[in-house]
Amino acid sequence: MERQSVWYSPDLVKKVVHIIRDPLDNIVARFHLDRYSKTETWLKEYPATMLGFQKWCKGIDDDNNMLISHKFVDKDLRKALSGVPCRAEFFRYVQWHNMAFAVTADLGLPELVFHYESYTTSFDKTIEDLLDFLELSPIGEPEPYVPGKVYGDYYSDDEKRAIARFTKEFSSKTTPSSTRRAIVVDYDLLNAATGLSGTSYDPTSFESSIYEWWEGSGCFDPDAKKVDDGGAPYVLPMPPPNVTGRLHMGHAIFVALQDVLARFHRMRGRAVLWTPGTDHAGIATQLQVEKLIIAEGRRRGTDEEVSSLRHDVSMTDEERDERLKELVDRDEFLERAWRYKEEQGGAITSQLRALGASADWTRERFTMDADMSAGVVEAFARLHERGLIYRGTYMVNWSPGLMTAVSDLEVEYAEEMGKLYYFKYVVEGGGGGGGGGGGGEEEEEEEYIPVATTRPETIFGDAAVCVNPKDDRYAHLIGKRVLVPMSSSSSDDGDASQRSIPVISDEYVDVGFGTGALKITPGHDVNDYELGKKYGLDLINVMNRDATMNGACGSRYAGLDRFDARERLWRDMEDAGLTIKVEPHAQRVPRSQRGGEVIEPMVSKQWFVRTEGMGAKALEAVRGGDIRIVPPRFEKVWYGWLTNVRDWCISRQLWWGHRIPVWYVGDKDEEYIVARNEDEARRKAVDAGHPPDVTLRQEDDVLDTWFSSGLWPFATVGWPQDENNGDETSDLARFYPGTCLETGYDILFFWVARMVMLGIELTGVSPFKVIYLHGLVRAADGSKMSKTKGNVIDPLDTVYQYGADSLRYSLVTGVTPGQDIPLNMDKIAANKAFANKLWNCCKFVTDNALKGVDSEEMQTLAVTGPLGREEFERLALPERYIISKCHELVESVTSDIEKYQLGAAGNKIYEFLWDQYADWYIEISKTRLYEGFGGGGDDAKTARRVLVYILDTSMRLLHPYMPFVTEQLWHHLPRAPKSDGVTANALMLADWPQMDDDVPLVKDEDAVATFECFQALTRSIRNARAEYNVEQGKKIGATVVASGHLKDAIETEIKSLIMLAKLDPDQVAVLEAGGDEAKKAAASDSVQLVVQDGVEAYLPLSGLIDIEKERQRLEKQSTKLAKEIEKLSGRLNAKGFVDKAKPEVVIKARAELAELEDQASKVQASLESLG
Hints:
With 1171 residues, the chain is an alpha+beta fold. 41% of the residues lie in helices and 17% in strands. Helix 24 crosses helix 25, helix 29 runs parallel beside helix 31 and helix 29 crosses helix 33. This is valine--tRNA ligase. Its EC number is 6.1.1.9. It catalyses: tRNA(Val) + L-valine + ATP = L-valyl-tRNA(Val) + AMP + diphosphate.
């Protein structure tokens, strides 16, 4: 579609909110447009990919993330902008002169981001022209753009208020710009000035702006909040996602949980370091780059292949150049991989920001950064010096598509239908003789052992046939030899004799499974490999690295793909009479997680880490209490795995990654040197007696990605650079070891155990004190999320629709440590309703309770610490109750989070805010605030104090779970000025409601018990109203009978009871139990409600119902029920029904009769109660 240019009408613009200047003197301006303007007549809708944003934005990728051009934006700004979640349908395009406008719009109200390129060489002249065109006056001199800086300091307070008043109208409708990190003014001041009146909960209107303010203000720095004696730092190493990855629910759950911990401990005064970063993702990234290369008709060429071509004298220069063009050598490949990383990388970190991750992005690390790479080399060198790294030939998972060994984690098993092939292993030199599988009736038939396999192509690698020593069928054949089918064709030296292999015995063989005889292929089966080592069998590799058959299979099969070879071999065996049958067979097929091809077990020369000793140390770290695993049930799994830990294959036949720091001496690889760089390798070679010009060739393989990420907790804070340097202020000294490693249980061994092993071995201490394991996020029905099933919930779509807070809260409160988390949209929608409830509670406080309050009282309402005993004792019952429950909640939530019971803590906050604060205290406060309910004066002051105190405290508790909405609302409450110890007056840096666990918060158990009686009384009356279908607006009478302090309390709060239970003030009485008036009330024509021992209520029937009408209704209902009972009873008593009808039909009929009889009994009782 051809892009259209349209003229921009200046009367659409109402206010320039801010103008900033980026490093290249480009101007970025933000405007608010009139929602009701003629936008539809001049703004044409195009996908962002069509627009291109005039070289600035290259469009959006498949995941709807903006791709920012390298050419016009500096690296830091580009990093901030790239990966911002966008949706193509919200983009509009308009052009004026040489200025390009990219417009994001929500419900027709756009926010315009303007990018100027070359309109004029004069920046000042451009500003003047722009303002002239928009018919506006200058609002201040823009300042140069600095990444991370908060802009807008040139505004005066009056100007800020003016902007706030203007933008107030649009505050809930405008989608804030997420295409830059500059903020107009201090966000909290602007936010507070706008007020909440007329607004509704719309997370898209403030979440990104709040995050920009947090990050730009430095709130994520460990020293953003300084508290005396704040205790040891709380350190969370963030599991590094793939640098080119995109956000999924696995990321969302770890962000939600870790952010709760980070924000909680930060508010409690601890220096919190949440270290973010990304992993180079060796296989995933290399696979993507190879796809790009293949799409160009080229492929990756090995170093040997490229070198051979370059030195091939049999070719002309033109032929050689043409062949070389088809290949991508290592240098070009790595250049393209880095370019791909730069283009695609960074999106994931922007997406983590969208979830509210309060990580210290100034310390962001990438596993292939120079300092991180130096740490990897140092770790390899040290481990090799200690004899913990060696080179050996062992069985590995081989990925033919990637042509590399892969870890167990990168292999996924799928249940698939295949075939089970039964064939004959003919006994060498054998005729009849009975026994075996081939005895048959004709004695002259060749004797054979029947064997079954799912992979006939591996027959060429068989080294034995194994039977159980107790299996009488084959006992006489043990020690004999059998002939490998078609093995004569595998001999290329002219010898047509068949290869023979021994028949061995081992109790490993299950007599009852299959034929009871196993072919043993040590070179291509994990279990067979172990048996091969046990009996010293030949290890034969029959495949090339790309899973084609090699020369060991003979010329007829060499070069064939393994599956093609399978078909040809089986046809040849059929022709030779060596097959028995083929059956369908369900089997677990190992497939590459990345490439999808079938994994081939293959023996290969690789680099390994000896893990037995390191594993023992890691095991003891948990057993000895140095590390605690949450939940504890995973300790048993930890012990089991580390007790039987296998050596770790750390080499990968890739190019993208940390190249192994090994140099081979000369042309062969028998002698090698481990060194930190080539200069050190050469010095070591010379020291070993080699000449200075000796040829050194670095190992081609790279290290397993898990090796570098295994160093994450200490390499990210300065290891080994700051090791033993005596600087107590270095990150390594302050923040290592870490506090908590939070991650999914599915990588407990692949990553966590290796971090512990490497951490203890290389630093001498455990890398963290707590391992917190969460489960997997699953679909609502508990099944795995899958694109093929269509049940994948996209986090960014969810954030866009419901807000980050609703998603976070749904994930965290659904968590029981170690258990999988079923997630459904209904739960997320319900939690958005909870956020809306909180919003409305805050609006009630700000727009009603605080309306008209003078500045002096507002200052006194700011919460600066826990409410004290003296003030508490002066309060009335409802206030003492709600504060007691709130303080009880504070202590409970604090204890739960400290114990990593995050889900339980979050649910308690929800229940308190909804069930206690909103449903009870806010309603009761109206009797204090409004003169119409008998309030005003000191009662109103007290209510304001308690309303603000409880809401402020609750938002502090809820903030780690729902950071955006709590921060947005907190600015509207009375606040103390920013203290010197914090970088911003933000809720995320405010004190936790209980900073000192040794100082208990005030509570009154008697007040709680008394008010709970008041609540029970209110509920009883409400339930009676519902039971008798009393009209909602109708007020009824009530007589409450109680004694002692309960009677006094109810009398004192009678106006609250009248309002909550909708009672008629002229027909309400509170009487002393046992008195004459109480006895008279009990004898009256009324409904008795027993609330608890010593408290009753009597509701006059005349106030509840019209007795005559109710009697007629009940009699009619009784008649109807009697007819139904008669009909159903007759059916059950009918001759033959019980005998002939199905049992379930009879049972159902009897249950229906019992239900009808019960209903009739209740109706009769109601009739009798009417007299």
